[in-house]
Every structure is written in structure tokens, then in C-alpha cells.
Amino acid sequence: MRRVLLALMILCYPLTAHAALTLQEVRTASNNVIVVYFKSTTINATEVNTASLAQWTVNGQPVTAINKYVMQADSCDHYIYLTVPPLVSGTT
Questions:
Q1: Would 26 be classed as within a structural domain?
Q2: Which of 50, 55, 63, 80 could disulfide-link 36, Cβ–Cβ 3.0 to 4.6 Å?
């Protein structure tokens, strides 16, 4: 009886998950779009805050537009598309 009770307690014990949102990659999509790719261990399409343009800056300047694409499965892949002034080849 004690073994059954112990087994039930172990099975019913709430599991704690450590959610992690990690930056995976930054790349260009065109001469004025930068893609920022985040991977998450949770399924939450709104985990990356894109509500405010002022929170996203490139070279100290706020981006002009933000679009996002989120793929949900066992985890979330967040692709954030930042529209910026035209990028110049060969500059940092």
C-alpha cells in the first residue's frame, strides 16, 4: 500500500519547467530587413515582445516596422523581421 501511495505521489508531483528564450541567429533578408531568430522551450506566440518599435533598435535607431512569424510545435521558433533604413554593403 505504501509503495502504491509513494508511486502516486511521485507521478502527481508537479513538474517544473525552466523556460528559455535564446537568440539563435541574426541575418539580413534584404537591403532593409534584418531577421532575428529566437528559439524557446515553451509554446507561447507572444513571448517575444514586438509591441513597441522603440524597444527594437539597430545602431541606436528605432526600427521602422516589425513583423513576426512564429512556428509552434514542441517549442516555439520566433522569426522577427525588423525593417530598417537601407543597409550599406561593407559597413558595420
A1: yes
A2: 80
Determine, yes or no, domain membership for 12: no
Q: In terms of residue numbers, what domain contains 45?
A: 17-83
* pLDDT tens-digit series, residues 22-79: 999 999 999 999 999 999 998 888 899 999 888 999 888 889 999 999 998 878 899 9
The Cα–Cα gap between 15 and 11 comes to: 9
CB 55 within 8 A of CB 48: no
Cell of 77: 521558433
Q: Structurally, how many domains does the chain consist of?
A: 1
Residue 42, burial from CB neighbour count under 10 angstroms (0-12, 13-18, 19+)? middle
